[in-house]
Design goal:
30% of the residues lie in helices and 32% in strands. The chain is of the alpha+beta class and 179 residues long. It has a seven-stranded mixed β-sheet with strand order 1-2-3-4-5-7-6.
C-alpha cells in the first residue's frame, strides 16, 4: 500500500502571497490552456498580468469573493478563488479558479481546496455552487465528477479565459447542490 500523502495546510492568502499565487495560476493555466492558442498568442495572459490580478484581488478582496491557498513545507502549492452571487443571486456561488502546482497534482491538493471552497460558500448561505470547465478538458471534468459535481446542461461559447483575442471555446457549467 502506498504511503499516505499528508494534506497541505489551507489558509487565506495575504498580499505577500500574490507573487507565489500568480506563478502557480500562470503556469497551471499555460500548461492546461496554452496548447489551445497559437504560439505567441497567449501574450494577454502573462505572469505580470496574473501578479497584478492577484495583488488587486488580495488588496481589495470584496466581501462577496474569497480565496484560499494550499501550502506545503512553507510553499504555496495551490489556490482556489470563488465569488458569491456572480449573477446577482446570492444563493449561487461560483468557483472561478482552481490551480495546483504541477509537482503537487494527484496529492489531494485540488480536492482539499475545492472542498474548502464549497464549505466556505455553504457558510455564506449559498445553496448551489457552479463552475465552468472546457468541454474538451476531460481530466478536469473527471475530477469534478468524482467529487459529485455534475454538468447541469448549460453550455457557453466564449473566448478562452474571456480574453478577446483568444480562440472561442465551448465550456460546460458544472453544479453542486449545497442545500
Amino acid at each position: 500500500m502506498p504511503p499516505m500523502t499528508e494534506l497541505p495546510v489551507l489558509r487565506s492568502p495575504g498580499l505577500q502571497d500574490a507573487q507565489a499565487v500568480a506563478e502557480i495560476h500562470y503556469h497551471s493555466w499555460v500548461a492546461t490552456y496554452g496548447p489551445l492558442v497559437a504560439p505567441g498568442a497567449a501574450d494577454p495572459f502573462r505572469l505580470t498580468e496574473r501578479v497584478e490580478h492577484w495583488e488587486r484581488l488580495l488588496r481589495e478582496l470584496p466581501r462577496d469573493r474569497g480565496a484560499l491557498v494550499a501550502e506545503r513545507d512553507g510553499r504555496v502549492v495551490g489556490l482556489v478563488e470563488w465569488e458569491i452571487g456572480p449573477e446577482g443571486d446570492r444563493a449561487i456561488g461560483e468557483v472561478h479558479a482552481i490551480h495546483v502546482a504541477a509537482a503537487e497534482r494527484g496529492r489531494g491538493v485540488g480536492t482539499a481546496l475545492l472542498a474548502a471552497a464549497v464549505e466556505a460558500l455553504r457558510s455564506f448561505g449559498v445553496h448551489r455552487a457552479v463552475l465552468w470547465v472546457l468541454a474538451a478538458n476531460s481530466p478536469a471534468r473527471r475530477f469534478y465528477e468524482g467529487l459529485g459535481w455534475t454538468w447541469d446542461g448549460t453550455i457557453i461559447e466564449r473566448p478562452l479565459g474571456d480574453f478577446a483575442d483568444f480562440p472561442r471555446v465551448i465550456e460546460y457549467q458544472y453544479a453542486l447542490d449545497l442545500a
